[in-house]
């Protein structure tokens, strides 16, 4: 059979076995596939939000709902969330620097950048806690929406329902990312990676952290901007 | 074991991985791009703020913001998550499944829109009801909510208060 | 070997304590690490299989119970009250219990038996053996995946014993029945346990799926290119891809559902009025959203169930037909096409929800496209059988039976995929007949086929063939007698999920038929005990394997010793030089994958020792001695 003959031809390629076709170790591959699958979780939540918004007559204006900045009583739409966005971007940068320092086997830099990343994550979580508290005192919570539609008509609860669920789920990811980074920091300080001879774990933690940042790009746009 | 060594360098040639200055320059360059894109998004957000909802120009700007969002996502995935520097196979394996989102989004949002349109046609009362102005302070089902749960609010992510809005819901939640 | 380097490096990265790497050196293991918290993929596969068998028994017994109600609505069975207590008053199953039974039957069969039991078993057991790896990429995650599955099972089982009973709103758990605790007795604690169980199940599937994918992509032995993998590996690999991309969507849907149940939200609840509760204060929600999210998983789920079965059947059919599989690349490509299409067609379950008809017509088009790869596969199976030198082992019979029920059930899929016809037959017994044949019975046949075929590899013993033949014929005839008449009932408009049809004049004509179906169900269910007896008896008392390669198969798993320990190959992992389907080629009955091209006639590679057909003496004892 011509077909079988084709299969028999020995042609060494990346896929012919014995090594990874992607030149990555399995842990990183697994992390990538996990993130792909997690992006479907977030995707499903955000798409549900979009679907509900498309299915509803009228929607509150996010610039009215999210218009406060701590310490400022004036109307300041988009200000606070911009701050949060920049914090997350900066913490992503420090993380990528930590990963790079790991590749160079530079323990001191790894520790320094990891600490900066953890601080960034904690500040972000603090910002979110402040925002949630503030919204709660305005009467917003799961099942309660004090904000009228942008044209002043009766709005649905789903505005706040989705906001708290999705930012909460994202915040949970940030929280677990911070936990992972703390574990990485402890392992680095205990010279675990020096003993192993590589900092591959930091790279995987970095992937997770960047994913959290990536999701925030979408959450930020979908909830605060449009 | 040469394979292992190769893996340790993250799948790159050593020359590339250890050209520290070049890599760091790239990181800061991408940071700059991301910041610029975010600032542009914010400027667009401020520009469209006074525009009426459902106006065409607002929709166009929203579309533009979405495009910028995807552009930012590209930078984060490509450079921070390093996908652009992986081998081609890897890029394909990660990016091709993401194409499923196109139909995922189109069908869901399309059906959401259709739900609204069909309901507006079949149930005119629903449309009428949606034209009523919102009452302040919110009275139907929203009150009785602020006061009792405030103390539970301190740790919002851990134990969300059972947001019992009115008697009917609390009965339901049992 | 590179592979080992990768595995060792991986193991070291994963385990902080670093104690895993030693698992490959045969050191003494306690009973607990060997049989319970085992990290050996073969043991984990067997654990999945046995848990799946237990669940199949429970799920099957449930179907017997509700078929009793459907077949004999007027007869009282006092023993029922003994078995299920107050769920059967005066020997009649109560309506609540009936709905719980159908719901849990569906959930258990789909998720725990055909996903956990079928793909969990064969993915774990076959992937490392067939691609030539020592174990999964991460044995620890593999073990966790089983124990998450086990916990999910225990929670689901515990929901049978709560006062208000298990969930009773259908396996799809549509709101408002699933979102409102007051909607039905089963919607209270039963539903919470159902959700908890399925969320753990999703976690288990993700852990497992990530592992299967990375193992297949990264850890193939030298020469084992993707297009040289046996189709059974392709099947479980692609089902893992489906699972990893679709289960998260179900997970997201469940998160929203939990908020609807307990935190006063209304994602899925609109302003409806419920008798006894009054008008709900909810606004803006939309139950169709849940249906979309559910079926975005739900449709890929049926392929998660059927792809491993397809792969197993292809492998068994080629081995026992002593012929190369017909159109190997077409088989792989059509499986790929099924994977892609699986994500594009979910809303064909929702034609009657009031979905946009235009959107519906796109879904019809995409749905009908699935017929193309499915038909390609069926033709390839038939042409593989054509003029083959068939060996009718029980595994082979089930493989052929699979093709039969897959065609019978698949043809009705073309009807149900059309929205115009589906609006008439939606939610009738026609649908029940369709999906039970094409996915329930077919996947079960794939599972039986796999168990009969790989039992010698699993336990080093043979199953009894005579019992296998009886089991096959009773099951095949029984399955057709149960589900074929349901097509007629469905076309006559008989709706599914009804407790009692006796008050409808139009369904009086089916009283006898329903009784007939119920009797067939009981007989078919009883026949499964033959299999159970055969399975468990053979583990301990079956005829011992005397050769490594009893089926004269080409695939790599038969090059391992009988009753092999953790690590799969005692020496080096063999190198692969050809695809696994070189049967009846160039005067050779079979040429194992490890024979280099051009060396087919080399006595070294045709020796009985190399091909694994040399009779070994007391293999089990020799093995035990070696490992003591």
Describe what this molecule looks like in 3D.
The complex is a heterotrimer of chains A (226), B (174) and C (628). Chain A has helices at 2-8, 26-54, 62-65, 79-103, 107-137, 158-189, 192-196, 200-225. Chain A is mainly alpha-helical. Chain A has a single domain, classed as Up-down Bundle (Four Helix Bundle (Hemerythrin (Met), subunit A)). With 174 residues, chain B is mostly helical. Chain B folds into two domains: 2-88, no CATH class; 99-133. In chain C, 62% of the residues lie in helices and 2% in strands. Chain C has helices at residues 2-14, 31-36, 41-71, 78-84, 95-131, 139-158, 189-218, 231-262, 287-321, 328-342, 357-369, 371-385, 394-416, 419-425, 429-459, 465-491, 511-541, 603-606, 608-611, 619-627; strands at 88-89, 92-93, 273-274, 278-279, 583-585, 588-590. In chain C, α6 runs antiparallel to α7 and α15 packs antiparallel against α16 (465-491). Chain C starts with a helix and ends with a helix. Mean pLDDT of chain C is 90; it is low at 1-26. Chain A: Its main location: membrane.
Rounded to an integer in angstroms, the radius of gyration calculated over CA atoms of chain B is 25 Å
Strand content of chain B: under 5%
Poorly predicted runs of chain B are 1-17, 138-174
Q: How do the SSEs of chain B run, as a string of H and E?
A: HHHHHHHH
Q: Major β-sheet of chain B, in short?
A: none
CATH superfamily descriptor of chain A: Cytochrome c oxidase, subunit III, four-helix bundle
Number of domains of chain B: 2
Can you tell me the CATH class of chain A?
Answer: Mainly Alpha
User: Structural class from helices and strands of chain A?
Assistant: mainly alpha
Q: The CATH topology of chain A, please?
A: Four Helix Bundle (Hemerythrin (Met), subunit A)
Order of helices and strands of chain A: HHHHHHHH
Helicity level of chain A = over 70%
* Shape assignment of chain B: elongated
Q: Given the structure, what is the number of helices of chain A?
A: 8
Structural class of chain B: mainly alpha
């Amino acid at each position: 059979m011509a077909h079988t003959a084709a299969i028999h031809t020995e042609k060494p390629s990346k896929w012919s076995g014995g090594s990874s076709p992607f030149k990555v170790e399995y842990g990183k591959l697994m992390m990538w596939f996990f993130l792909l699958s997690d992006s479907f979780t977030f995707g499903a939540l955000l798409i549900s939000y979009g679907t509900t918004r498309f299915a509803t007559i009228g929607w509150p204006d996010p610039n009215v709902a999210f218009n406060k900045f701590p310490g400022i009583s004036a109307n300041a739409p988009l200000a606070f969330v911009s701050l949060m966005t920049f914090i997350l971007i900066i913490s992503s940068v420090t993380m990528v620097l930590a990963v790079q320092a790991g590749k160079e086997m530079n323990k001191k830099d790894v520790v320094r950048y990891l600490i900066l990343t953890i601080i960034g994550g904690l500040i972000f979580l603090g910002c979110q806690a402040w925002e949630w508290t503030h919204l709660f005192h305005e009467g917003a919570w799961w099942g309660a929406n004090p904000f009228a539609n942008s044209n002043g008509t009766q709005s649905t609860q789903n505005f706040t329902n989705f906001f708290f669920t999705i930012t909460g789920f994202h915040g949970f990811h940030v929280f677990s990312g911070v936990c992972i980074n703390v574990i990485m920091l402890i392992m680095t300080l205990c010279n675990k990676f020096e003993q192993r001879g590589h900092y591959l774990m930091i790279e995987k933690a970095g992937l997770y952290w960047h994913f959290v940042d990536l999701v925030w790009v979408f959450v930020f746009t979908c909830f605060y901007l449009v | 074991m040469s394979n292992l060594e190769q893996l340790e360098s993250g799948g790159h040639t050593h020359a590339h991985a250890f050209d520290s200055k070049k890599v760091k320059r790239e990181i800061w360059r991408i940071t700059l791009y991301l910041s610029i894109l975010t600032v542009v998004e914010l400027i667009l957000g401020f520009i469209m703020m006074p525009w009426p909802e459902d106006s065409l120009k607002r929709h166009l700007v929203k579309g533009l913001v979405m495009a910028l969002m995807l552009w930012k996502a590209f930078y984060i995935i490509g450079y921070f998550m390093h996908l652009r520097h992986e081998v081609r196979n890897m890029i394909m394996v990660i990016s091709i499944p993401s194409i499923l989102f196109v139909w995922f989004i189109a069908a869901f949002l399309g059906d959401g829109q259709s739900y609204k349109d069909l309901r507006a046609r079949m149930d005119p009362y629903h449309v009428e009801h949606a034209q009523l102005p919102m009452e302040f302070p919110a009275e139907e089902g929203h009150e009785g909510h602020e006061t009792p749960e405030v103390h539970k609010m301190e740790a919002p992510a851990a134990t969300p208060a059972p947001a019992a809005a009115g008697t009917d819901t609390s009965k339901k939640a049992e | 070997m590179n592979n080992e380097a990768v595995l060792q490096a991986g193991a070291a990265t994963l385990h902080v304590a670093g104690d895993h790497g030693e698992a490959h050196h045969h050191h003494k293991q306690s009973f607990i690490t060997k049989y319970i918290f085992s990290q050996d993929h073969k043991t984990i596969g067997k654990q999945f299989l046995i848990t799946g068998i237990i669940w199949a028994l429970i799920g099957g017994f449930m179907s017997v119970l509700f078929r009793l109600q459907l077949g004999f609505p007027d007869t009282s069975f006092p023993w029922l009250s003994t078995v299920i207590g107050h769920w059967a008053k005066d020997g009649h199953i109560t309506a609540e219990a009936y709905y719980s039974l159908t719901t849990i039957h569906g959930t258990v069969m789909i998720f725990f038996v055909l996903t956990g039991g079928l793909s969990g078993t064969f993915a774990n057991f076959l992937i490392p053996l067939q691609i030539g790896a020592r174990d999964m990429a991460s044995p620890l995650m593999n073990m966790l995946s089983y124990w998450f599955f086990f916990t999910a099972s225990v929670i689901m089982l515990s929901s049978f014993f709560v006062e208000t009973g298990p969930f009773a709103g259908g396996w799809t758990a549509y709101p408002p029945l699933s979102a409102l605790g007051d909607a039905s007795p089963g919607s209270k604690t039963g539903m919470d346990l159902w959700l908890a169980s399925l969320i753990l199940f999703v976690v288990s599937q993700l852990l497992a799926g990530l592992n299967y994918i990375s193992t297949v992509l990264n850890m193939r032995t030298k020469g084992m290119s993707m297009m040289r993998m046996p189709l059974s590996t392709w099947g479980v690999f692609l089902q893992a891809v489906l699972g990893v991309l679709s289960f998260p969507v179900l997970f997201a849907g469940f998160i929203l559902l939990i908020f609807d149940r307990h935190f006063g939200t209304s994602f899925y609840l609109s302003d409806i009025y419920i008798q006894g509760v009054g008008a709900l204060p909810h606004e803006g929600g939309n139950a169709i959203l849940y249906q979309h999210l559910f079926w975005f998983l739900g449709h890929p789920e049926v392929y998660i169930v059927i792809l491993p079965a397809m792969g197993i059947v292809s492998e068994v059919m080629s081995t026992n037909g002593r012929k190369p599989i017909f159109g190997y690349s077409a088989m792989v490509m059509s499986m790929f096409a099924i994977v892609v299409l699986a994500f594009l067609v979910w809303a064909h379950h929702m034609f009657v929800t009031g979905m946009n008809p235009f959107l519906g017509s796109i879904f019809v088009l995409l749905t009908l496209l699935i017929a193309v790869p499915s038909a390609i596969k069926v033709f390839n199976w038939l042409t593989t059988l054509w003029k083959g030198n068939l060996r009718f082992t029980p595994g082979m019979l089930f493989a052929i039976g699979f093709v039969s029920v897959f065609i019978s059930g698949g043809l009705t899929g073309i009807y149900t995929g059309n929205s115009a016809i589906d609006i008439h037959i939606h939610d009738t017994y026609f649908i029940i007949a369709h999906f039970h044949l094409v996915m329930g019975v077919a996947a079960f046949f794939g599972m039986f086929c796999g168990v009969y075929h790989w039992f010698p590899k699993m336990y080093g013993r043979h199953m009894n063939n005579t019992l296998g033949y009886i089991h096959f014929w009773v099951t095949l005839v029984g399955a057709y007698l149960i589900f074929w008449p349901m097509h007629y009932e469905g076309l006559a408009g008989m709706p599914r999920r009804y407790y009692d049809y006796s008050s409808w004049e139009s369904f009086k004509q089916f009283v006898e038929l329903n009784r007939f179906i119920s009797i067939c169900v009981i007989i078919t269910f009883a026949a499964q005990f033959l299999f159970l007896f055969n399975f468990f008896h053979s583990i301990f008392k079956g005829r011992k394997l005397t050769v490594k390669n009893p089926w004269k198969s080409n695939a790599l798993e038969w090059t391992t010793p009988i009753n092999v320990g953790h690590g799969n190959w005692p020496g080096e992992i063999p190198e692969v030089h050809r695809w696994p389907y070189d049967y009846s080629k160039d005067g050779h009955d079979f040429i194992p994958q490890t024979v280099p091209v051009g060396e087919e006639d080399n006595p070294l590679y045709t020796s009985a020792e190399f091909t694994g057909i040399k009779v070994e003496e007391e293999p089990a004892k020799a093995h035990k001695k070696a490992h003591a």
